[in-house]
Specification:
2 copies of one chain form a homodimer. By secondary structure, chain A is mainly alpha-helical. Chain A has a single domain, classed as Winged helix-like DNA-binding domain superfamily/Winged helix DNA-binding domain (Arc Repressor Mutant, subunit A). Chain A is built from 6 helices and 3 strands. In chain A, strand 2 and strand 3 form a beta hairpin. Chain A is globular and about 55 Å long. The two termini of chain A are 26 Å apart. At the A-B interface, helix 1, helix 2, helix 5 and helix 6 of A face helix 1, helix 2, helix 5 and helix 6 of B. Chain A binds a DNA duplex through helix 4.
Chain lengths: 171, 171
DNA sequence: CCGAACTGGTTAAACGTTCAAGGATAGGTA
DNA sequence: TACCTATCCTTGAACGTTTAACCAGTTCGG
């Protein structure tokens, strides 16, 4: 489902093998389903999209539960623009607070509030359970290791070759 | 990055192990990067989001290059609503045409046009190359097999337990 | 046949993301 | 100091997705 038919591009580029096609289909299908599963669980139980939840978690691990916007964006791998919108929403809900950065007047800190921390504590178990149910409970220990390796290999090739409009580091 | 700290939920639910945490991070990171890679490549070279491209491909494999809306939605695993919007856009671009279904007057067929087929032929090689570059070129043959297995296992657990508003079959 | 329930598909509004632009501060370099 | 450029973050508009109705046609039980 990646290509029309015929085994090879006119320009000599290779299509995918049958095996690769099947795996690619499974990949698309599986990742879509899992993402959806998690998004729904969080939306339902916490009223948050997955990425917004990830932002709270990330902040909760940071010193003082606060981070510079750019750091946070890099950590979660989203654009600053997206982060800016997201933090606005989280701020409106009272889970995050913006603070001016003392050492750089351009800077802003995103700080997790007590209310945000409470929100997180409350919704974490359900989320973890969903991750287990959707992924780890279905994989053997060897498969977990394999998946880690595979993802490392994937990531390696896609990392930080700057492109795009907003950024030197990509989404 | 899935949970706040402490090894176990108050209710006795298990957190993820360190290994699992790492793998989960890699998974989130890797899948995000790959999806982004493909979306950008297609947006840049074909002016289409990945899913829209997938719709064209799916149609190109169907008999008469046309499918009932619901079939198409099931094939790609998206909601009917989303499909409806998507087909409207593709129709506006002239790559897909809607036709009334002769056997069921409620039904609509989405048909790939010649122009849509041309579009597909033109953009396929670049897309395949991106899939190779982002995934298959970085995996050993064994890893490809492993990935297939892992995705099958994931999918199995998430498949069709109807929930949500619009549907019996989920996104 | 009649009505209830279901199926196929669309729509409007709310939401989130991207894209392109812009304002403010910082860090050079002359 | 005066500039030029890079960095930090935000904004508004365009786009795509979700959600929750909604209408029309079909099916099934009486």
């Amino acid at each position: 489902m990646t290509t029309p038919s015929s085994p090879q591009g006119d320009d000599g580029s290779r299509w995918l093998s049958d095996e690769e096609q099947r795996v690619w289909q499974s990949y698309l299908h599986g990742t879509l389903l899992l993402e959806d599963h998690l998004d729904r669980q969080l939306q339902r139980d916490a009223g948050l999209p997955h990425i917004y939840y990830a932002l709270l978690v990330h902040l909760s691990h940071a010193p003082d539960m606060s981070l510079r916007m750019t750091e946070l964006a890099k950590g979660i791998k989203i654009t600053r623009s997206r982060l800016s919108h997201a933090i606005s929403r989280l701020e409106a809900s009272g889970w995050v607070r913006r603070e001016d950065c003392s050492s750089d007047r351009r800077g802003q800190l995103a700080c997790l509030t007590q209310s945000g921390l409470a929100k997180l504590r409350e919704s974490a178990p359900g989320h973890v359970a969903a991750v287990r149910q959707g992924l780890f409970d279905r994989l053997s220990p060897e498969q977990v290791v394999q998946l880690g390796e595979i993802m490392r290999a994937m990531t390696a090739g896609l990392e930080p070759e700057s492109r795009g409009a907003d950024l030197p580091w990509r989404r």
